[in-house]
TrEMBL record:
GO function terms (MF aspect): metal ion binding; phosphatase activity
GO cellular component terms listed in the entry, alphabetical order: cytoplasm
Cofactor field: a divalent metal cation
Keyword Translocase recorded: no
Taxonomic lineage: Bacteria, Bacillati, Bacillota, Clostridia, Eubacteriales
Family: Belongs to the metallophosphoesterase superfamily. YfcE family.
Protein name, entry field: Phosphoesterase
Keyword annotations of the record: Metal-binding
């Protein structure tokens, strides 16, 4: 019983299309999205249209929320003032160029998706069950992750937001991060997503896939978005 989870597409239609092709070629029919469809790249409406057309169940990310409700910031944790400035320019551009129809769709996104598969309860959120913009890193303090998992009424918790994929087992529960389709931070430009296989055990495969990142990077440079976002896309960096 396999399904794929994508996350953090961030207006990168070329990465999204490549991910969907890769998933289909692997014979996976069920796809979920852990949020953040928009931001950072210049194709928010195209990404939303594709997600709607493919009927992919999607939770609301912090960037989706900020865009839909015209919030001044996306609630991101930037490492320095320069990164915060770039982020603020990005959210301003995204709010301006995301259509009203697309914003209305973003408003309909739930905060979580829950289902049961083979007796295992699955919970999909964007940041954490506690907060839409909380970062659950693989390297987060073990006590913190144990506390979160102990409070979750699920056997499998899947999230995004960090853009760094991983799978950890914490007190017999599975914590999975789907990484990022459209704005990777793992050090190379390939996108990532995960395939979850629930049988007697839970198997997780982290998939890295190539796509035409240069076309997206050039589209960023041709827009009013900060050019630094194109450079980050080429390197898979922060």
């Amino acid at each position: 019983m396999k399904f794929a989870v994508i996350a953090d597409v961030h207006s990168n239609i070329y990465a999204l299309n490549a991910a969907l092709v890769d998933i289909k070629q692997r014979g996976i029919e069920r796809i979920y999205c852990a949020g953040d469809l928009v931001g950072y790249a210049p194709f928010p409406n195209e990404v939303i249209h594709t997600i709607k057309k493919a009927n992919i169940p999607t939770v609301m990310g912090n960037y989706d929320e900020a865009t839909a409700y015209f919030k001044p910031t996306c609630g991101c944790d930037y490492p320095n003032d320069k990164a915060a400035e770039i982020g603020n320019q990005s959210i301003a551009w995204t709010k301006k160029h995301t259509s009203e129809e697309s914003k209305e769709f973003l408003k309909t996104l739930p905060s979580k998706i829950e289902f049961t598969e083979k007796g295992k309860k699955v919970l999909i959120v964007h940041g954490s069950p506690r907060q839409i913009n909380e970062y659950l890193y693989e390297t987060s303090p073990q006590e913190e992750l144990e506390e979160i998992m102990s409070q979750v009424d699920a056997d499998i918790l899947i999230c995004g937001h960090t853009h760094l994929p991983y799978h950890k087992v914490i007190n017999e529960k599975h914590l999975i991060n789907a990484g990022s389709v459209g704005k990777p931070k793992h050090g190379d430009p390939m996108g990532t997503y995960v395939i979850v296989d629930i049988g007697q055990d839970v198997q997780v495969e982290i998939i890295k896939f190539p796509y035409d990142y240069e076309t997206t990077a050039q589209a960023i440079e041709d827009s009013e978005l900060p050019n630094e976002l194109a450079a980050l896309l080429r390197t898979g960096g922060r």
